Hints:
alpha/beta, single chain, five-stranded mixed sheet, six-stranded mixed sheet, 16 helices, 11 strands, 389 residues
Amino acid sequence: MKKIGLVILVFFVALAFTATAFGQAKPEAKKSKIEKFGEDKRGIAWKDKKWTTSDKKFNWRISDPWGGLNFAEITKHFCDSVRAASGGRLDIKWFPTGAIVPAMEIFDATVKGTLDAFHSWPGYWKGRDEAFVAFASVPFGLDVEGYNIWYYERGGKEMFDELYGRFGLVPFFCANVGQELGLHSNKKATKMEDFKGMRIRTPGWYMDILTLLGASVTPLPGAEIYVALERGVIDACEFSSPAANIPAGFHEITKYVIEPGVHQPSCQFDVVFNKKKWDELPDDLKAIVEICAKETQLWAWAWQENLNIEALKIMQKTTEFIKMEDATIVEFAKTSFKYLEDLSAKHPFTKKVLDSQEEFKREFAFWREMRSGVAPWPKEMVLKGKLYQ
């Protein structure tokens, strides 16, 4: 019996050892104190939403200020996306500039209901509120990436809704075409003193900034720029991206392009709806419109930047590309920031928007700096030591 008892004892000791060796002896994996990081705000809003497919059809009218510019393709792309995604239940028909109202009357026409919607560059509405320019392009402001993060994730959309909402309108970001070209010029200007007395065409905040820097500035309409350059009325002009400038022919009658386009690190467009008409839409069509605006935001940037490749090849045949000196760019920046500070002091909502953008830039700066050594230059340029954007 003693032997049997001893065997049983040995058996249980061995069993306990095995359990310890293969189970309890292993320390538990240490759990992070942060169990979840990041939530989709839309996912929360839509979590319990019951979606139904509406059967009512809507036929709307939209126009834009683009005239012969290829930006009209963006308006049409958005309309096509909405028509496809809605199965034709929301058909937004595009009317070219001037077919219903002149270019700069599309805002009021949409407020009144003559148009149901318009596509535009928000800076055109500067006369109604200075803050519109902050959602379009700010000198030394947000690039495409910055606008996307700030608008979709940092409260930019809510401020945009508030601004247009004052006029009975509902807006969405709808296309960013990237950084604009600098100046087509017949005068070579790389130093600050070169710009003094220079006769330049540009609108908006950049017009005021260049004036402060000693230039003679005029906001000529796009259709009048070519003739003014050709006749020597102006020395230089700023207009848009390389792909948008090519059809205008500025490169044919100017010697230089002065870079970079510090006045517009990116160019942001929008699509805007009459609120009464918007409120008539069922929820599923509202969601389709918002999603299609975001799809157009992505597509337009890729489309325009790809077109810029060929546009620049054409320009380089007749035009010399030059860059402002770093010290000149810094002086431009000092004057620009002082101008924006003075503007903000007079316009509280503009200050709110610009402060929000600046806060984002400040908080994003560390990550922007840390990742800056992997700019996607061609391999032969990287191997020669070119690393930074």
